[in-house]
Amino acid sequence: MNIMIFLLVLMLLAGLWAVMTSLLLRAAIALALTSVVLSILMFQMGAPLAAVFELSVCAGLISVVFISVISLTHRLPLKEYLARRQNRILRFWFLPVLLAIAGLMFFLFKQPVEVHTPARLLLAEVRIVLWQLRRLDLFTQIIVLLAGVFGVLILFGGNKENGN
Amino acid sequence: MGIELSQIFWLFLTFFILMLIEGFYCITMTYNLLRVLIGLEILIKAVTLFIIFAGYISGNMALAQTVVITVIVIEVVVVVIAAGVILGFFREYDSLNVRNARNMKG
Amino acid sequence: MAYLIILIPFALLALLNLLPARSRTPIAFYSTLVLLAGQVLLSPFELVRSAQFEAMLGFNLLLNNFSLILIITSGIILLASLLTAWAMIKEDSKRFNFINLLLILLIAMNGLAMAKDIFTLYVFIEAISVATFILISLNMDKYAFEGILKYLILSVVASALMLSAIGLLIMSSGSLLLTDIRGFIFPSGGTVFSQAAMTLFICGLLIKGGVVPFHGWVADAYSSASPPVSILLAGIITKAAGIFTLMKVMTATLCFTTPVMDILLLVGAISIVFGALAALGQTDIKRMLSYSSISQMGYIIAGLGTGTPLGILGAIFHFINHAVFKSQLFANAAALEQQLGTRDMDKMGGLAQVMPVTGTTSILASLSTAGVPPLAGFWSKLLIIIALWLSGNYVYSIVAVLASVITLAYFLSLQRRVFFGKVPAELSGVREASALLLMPAVFLSALTVGIGLLFPFILKMVMRQ
User: Do the domain assignments include residue C296?
Assistant: First the structure.
C-alpha cells in the first residue's frame, strides 16, 4: 500500500516535470519516465502483461518518435533558445500550486463511497480473454495499425522529395 | 465492500484527477505543438492508470489488461500520425508555434 | 454472414496492395465501386450463413436492422465520395492512397454498425478517426494541417473521456457488453458509477460528433479538407462516429435517464441555433455548409433527447436524410471548386445558366435541408418537431421551427449569391463540371426527392416492425 502511494506520487512528479521543464528534449525524457513508473505501478497491481506492453511501446517507441521529431524541427540558435527559457518557470508556477490545492481538497472532502463490485466469476487468464472473447478487438487493432502504416507512408513519404 | 477499498478508490481517483489536470494544463498553456502532444500523452496515461485500477479493484484484471493493450496500440498509432502532422506543419510554416495556426477565421 | 461485411473489404485491401504498382489504380477503383454497390444493394438480404465458418472466426458481431441503416448509408456516401475523388484527384499514387483509406474507413464503419460491446465501439471509432486524420492530410497544404490539429486534440480528449467511462464500467458492472449494461441501468437507474460512466461516454461522443460547445474543430476540418474528403467527413464520418454511436448506445442500453436527456436537449437546441446563426455570416461556401451541419446535428440530438419512439424515429430519418443532402451539397461545392478554383461566394454569381445541373441539384438539396415539403428533409424535421412538442418541450419545439426558417434564409442567400444574378467578369469562361463529378450529385438528389415522395410509405413500413 505504501509502495503504491510512493509510485503514484512519483508518477505525478514525473508528469509535473514533463509539463514544466523548459527544454523539449527533457520533456520527452520525462514522458518516458512517466511511462516507466506507470509500468512499475501496473506490475505492482497485478497486470504484468500490460506493464510489459506499456514499457516496451510507450517508453520505447514513443520516445524514439518524439526525439526524432524534436531533432527534425529544431531551428533556433542556442542563445535565443536559452533566453526564451528563462521566464518559463515563472509563467508556469501556477501548476504545482493548483495540484496541491486540488489534492488537499480531495483529501478533505472524500466521503465513503460504496464500491459495488459484482460477484462475477473471475475469468482466469488474460490469454483466454484476449484471444477468444475479444477476437474482434484484435481485428480492429490490425485495422488501426494498417491505417497507421498508410499514414506513415503518406505523411513521411514526402520527406524524400523535400530532401529533409 | 470495506472501508479500505473505499480509501484506495479515493486515493487513485485523486491521483487520476491530478494527472488529468496536468495534462489539460499542458495542452492549454503552451505555445509549442510538441508540448501539446506531450499533454495529450499524459492524458492517455492517466486514463490507462484508471483502467488498470478499475481492473484491480474489481478483480477483473484480464478484461482490464486486454483493454489497456488495445488502448496502447491505438495510442501509438495516434502519436505517430500526430508526429507526422506536426512535421508537415513545420514544413509549411517553418515554426512550431501554435499561434501560427490561427489562420482560419470565422 | 455478418463478418463477411467486414472481411470482404479487408481481403480486397490486402489483394490490392499486392498487385504490381503499374496498373493497380484502375483495378482498385472498379473493384471498390463494385464492392460498395454490392454493399448498398445486397445487404438487406441475408445470404449464406455458414455456422462452421462463424465458429472458427469467433467474432462477436450482431447484424440487425439498426446496423443496416449505417451500412447502407455509408455505402451510398462512400460511393459518392469515390466518384468525386476519381474525378478530382489526378495523381495516380494519391488516388491509390485514397482508395486504400476509403476501404479502411469502410471496414471500420461496418464494424461500428455491428459491434456488440462498448469497448469495440470505442476501438472502431478510433479507427475511423485515425483514417480521417490521414484522409484530411492527403492534400498537404497549410490549412489541412491546421484543421487536422484541432480535430486531433479534441479527438484525443474525447477518447480520454470515453476510456474513463469504460474504466468506470469495468469497475461497476464487470462486463462491457451493451446488453449487460442495459441490464444494469434499466431497472433502477443504476449506481452512481454507471450513470457517471454513461454521461462521460456520451460527452465523449458529442465531442466527436461536433456539436456545441465542442464544435471548434468542425468548420476548420471540413473546409480545409480536399473536396472528396469533405463529402466523406460531413456526410458520414462525424455522423457515424458521433451521432450513430450515440443512437446505438442509447437504444441498446435504454439509458434514458433524466440528466442525460436534459443534456441532449440543451446541447441539441443550442447547436441548432448556433449553427444556423453562424452560417448566415459566411462567405466561404464550405464553412457555411459545415456550420449548417452543426445545426442539423442539433436536430438529431434534440430528437434523440426526447426519449420517445417518435423522436428516435425522427432522429434516425434525419440522420439518413442529412447524410444524403449534405453530401450532395458538398459534391456541388466540389464541382464549383473544380471549375472556378475558388470557394468565396462573393466572387460567384449567375452560375445557373452556365452550370444547370449543379444549380438544380443544389436547389433541391437546399430546400430539403430547410425542410420544405415534399422533399425528404421536411418529413424528418416534422417528426422531430412533433416529438419535441408532444413530450412537453414547447420552447425547444418553437426554437426548432424558427431555426428552420433561418436555415431557409441562409440557403436562399447561398443560392442567390452563387447561382442567380449576373456572371462576374473573371468567371466568364466557366463551363459545367465533368460528367463524372456530376453523377454523385444527380444520384443523391434523386435520392432526396425519392425519399421525400415515398416517405409516407416508408413510414408505414417501418411502423409495422
Answer: yes
| Residue A72 sits in the same domain as residue A133 | no
CA distances (Å), origin B103, targets B106, C225, C345: 10, 15, 19
Which residue segment(s) compose the domain that A18 sits in? Answer: 1-76+90-107
Q: Please list, in sequence order, all residues whose beta carbon lies within 8 angstroms of the beta carbon of residue A22, skipping any fewer than 6 positions away.
A: A85, A88, A89
Does the residue A72 lie in any domain? yes
Which range of residues forms the domain containing residue C459? 256-465
Structural domains counted in chain C: 1
Angle, helix C394-419 to helix C356-370, in steps of 10 degrees: 170
Backbone angles phi, psi at C317, to 5 degrees: -65, -35
State the pLDDT at residue C451: 74
Question: Mean pLDDT of residues grouped by 10 in chain B (106 residues)?
Answer: 66 84 84 87 93 84 86 93 88 72 54
Q: What is the pLDDT of residues C121-154, one digit of tens each?
A: 899 999 999 988 888 888 777 777 777 888 888 8
- Mean pLDDT is lowest, of C67-71, C119-123, C182-186, for C182-186
Nearest residue, CB atoms, C191 vs list A116, A135, A143: A116
Average pLDDT over residues A145-161: 75
A81 falls within a domain: no
Report yes or no on C404 lying in a domain: yes
Is the domain of A62 the same as that of A103? yes
What does the pLDDT read at residue B40? 93
| Chain A residues whose beta carbon lies within 8 Å of the beta carbon of residue C57 | 135
Contacting subunits of C (3+ beta carbon pairs below 8 A):
A, B
Count of domains observed in chain A: 2
Q: Using CA atoms in the order C381, C387, C393, C395, what is the torsion angle rounded to 10 degrees? A: 20
Q: Is residue A120 part of a domain?
A: no
Per-residue pLDDT tens digits for C277-309: 888 877 777 888 888 888 888 888 888 887 777
How many CB pairs below 8 Å do chains A and B form together?
210
Q: Do both A68 and A137 map to the same domain?
A: no
Query: Is C372 inside any structural domain?
Result: yes
Q: What is the ipTM of this complex?
A: 0.91
- For the record, the C-alpha cell of A45 comes out as 497491481
C384 and C303 Cβ atoms separated by less than 8 Å: yes
First vs last C-alpha separation in chain B? 54
Give the whole-angstrom CA distance, residue B66 versus residue C146.
34
Q: Shortest CB distance from B74 goes to which of C123, C146, C220?
A: C123
In the CATH hierarchy, which top-level class contains the domain B3-95? mainly alpha
